[in-house]
Fold:
Amino acid sequence: MFKIVAIILLISLLFLSSLFGKNSEYYLKFDISSTDEIQLLTNIVSIVNVNGLTVYAFANDNQLHQLEILEYEYELLTAPGASVDIRMSDTLDYVRAWDSYPTYTAYVAMMNQFAIDYPNLCVIENIGTTINGRSLLYAKISDNILAEEDEPEVMYTSTMHGNETVGYILTLRLIDYLLSNYGIDSLATRLVDSCEIWINPNANPDGSYYSGDHTIFGARRFNANGVDLNRNFPDQFAGNHPDGNSWQPETIAMMNFASAHNFVISANMHSGVEVLNYPWDNTATRHPDDAWFIYTCRQYADSAQFYSPNGYMNYLNNGITNGYDWYSINGGRQDYMNVWHKCREVTLELSDAFLMEEKYLDDHWTYNKNSLLNYLEQGLYGIRGVVTDAVTSLPVDAGVHIMGHEFDTVRVPTDPDVGDYHRLIKAGTYDLEFSATNYYTDTIHNVVVFDEYATIVDVELIPITAGPLVSFLNHNAENPESDNIVDFDITVINYGLTDATNLTGTLSCTDGYISVTQGLSSYPTISGSLGEGTSLSSYQFSVTAGCPINYTVEFQLDLAADGGYSDMVLFNMTINPVVEDFETNGLTYLPWQHSGEQQWTVIPGSRYEGSYFAQSGTIDDNENSGLFIEVDIVNDDVLSFYYKVSSQIGGDYLSFYIDDDMVGSYSGEIDWTKASFNISAGTHTFRWEYAKNGSVSSGDDAVSVDYIIFPELINSPIISTEFLPNWEVNSPYSQQLEATGTIGVYSWGDKYNDLSGTGLILASNGLVSGTPISEGTISFTAVVTDEINSFDEKLFSFEINQDWVCGDANRDGDINILDVVYIINYKYKSGPAPDPIESADVNNDLAVNILDVVYLINFKYKSGSEPNCP
Structure:
């Protein structure tokens, strides 16, 4: 221990004692010999920063006495709340200039005025009262202010330390910005339309207005009882009262408020340094969503740095830190919100100054405005959906668990009022488990998440009932096609607790393309608690000629069993599904891509069906040959295919991947065999890869795939041709339009017949050809349509007899560095397009990109070739 050498300046002590009275509050610093001492000290004083081995902290009389007992040498510092002159305003007009602080009366009036001015967007809620009778106010902002919706609840709160006031003004200004810019600023409008926003500018008004309602001069960190509110919350390791104090009125109000809501993302604003602090504060163990916290905090800090001078928001790890890595605390609100309420909350330290002079407030709004909006927008991403009762469609109070990723304290709940959940998470592929009391647990596999996007996963949970509850499970109709008769069996599952005996099913369908020819079948006894059973005789239906590709049909199965049980279930079947059987004698039916050293090819031979199949390329040792495709799946379903392998057993493998996860691997001598995999709705990449691991070869040293049946696809062909070149009158013209992402054979058309009379035509294969008959501008809208009637369209315009100079992108009559800048602004900074676009395609590759910039620089400054526009 250190010998007591308390350096107490008498004048400072007398000033502080007169200012704070009985519940004195001291600001001090002292040195430690090791950071290990933080674990002890964090329960004695309120640490605000640890810089090397120097600790900065606040303490009341009792805490200071404990520090002295431990024989720490400390130095009292000037109280932040008494260190600057503060300009106050007591009218709303003056406050809205944002260059002063409001009196307490003006603050309450401003909050209430928001609701008066924007009654359809804002309400003010008083969640509780402080020790001295001041209100703890929240502004709720939403487009449907009185309705509970499938929206994330997001929250900002500030100034729970009464002398940390930058966030106080920034949150007031954020409320004003969201309301006054609704319908003007696109992001503000999106947030108000898509979120339920709660903002609490001052969580400790007794501390801020310690000297009276008229001023924040003399503001203090603690509340009126001398308690640090950010050490007063329950702690998962240190218990319900880690600071040894009872829960304060402000703490109780915040806890009750959080329990009444389902907050998805929040931030607690402080001052004293400039950094984002993310969980945990009380343990070295990393949060399961550590990657998400780092990603999101990094975004905030990077944006704040972009809009500020050098040196702002760059403390510790360039503006972000794990809380425990900085210094540990117990009873913090950040960990409480993450553990008790499954909210993703961070602590946002906005300025080096605790109580900031009003002249700097506007600058800090500029630094943080975009970051504050963008942080709330993160609440719209990740995995989200609605959990409902499969029988009643009512919302279910359920838990959403990411399997193999998290522990109980971070799994998120649904909002029982709506059933919506919002699971913020970093990009990846996850398995989700949905559970609720009196419901069967449901698991959804391979849910793909991208950063800055929302993946929608809606779930219907099956209630556990006392009697039988029979539901459709699957059918074995592989590939129903037009002008065919389909025989198939239906398997059902019993979710109830009681057996279903003497069960019968009657199949019907009202779709005009379907005629049920055998609709009745009986079932064996199906035991309760997830028993399964298949129809004892086949159902049958016929499909009329002309049924479209990928056509979804709804069937109805009426069920009846002993004991008066009856129910009706619906299920869908895809008629004429997308089947890749390679009968086009090529890889042209679907948008296939290749990976590895050698491409796959389509060949005739000993196929599974038809005349052709796909085979891997000829590869050498330690090489691979891959065939893959990215598609959008409409509903949860099954993908199946047939494979054949002739390779070194245990050495060279055909592997099948779903989104880079290997789900099947085969080697040796295997004749045509079927493989099936459950696929969730959404975007997926399917890849078949043959890989050799060494010098040994066996058999054909190749693998084959045939007859791939895809789930129902969402397809969006995209016209990839950027523009058409200008031309000369009476000169033959021939340009091929290109499209990607199409399914099967596709055709082109001139949507409005605008080419009529120009001398040009657009053929069904996408060739624009003919001889222009007159000068001027030719404009037409090209439409491409694929076999499942998905389409894309694009307007093309080009000149006959051009009046522009190739390379003169800005049309100023000269080719110089300004044209380089013009092209860069167009491609990468949303600047205006060159006029015409062809003038910037100086390398004549029918695309404007960085290659044209390099080409133009080489021409002007490195004796490169002259521009050669289309």
Summary: Confidence is low (pLDDT under 50) at residues 1-22. The CA atoms of residues 134 and 640 lie 66 Å apart. The two ends are 82 Å apart (CA to CA). DSSP finds 16 helices and 52 strands in the chain.
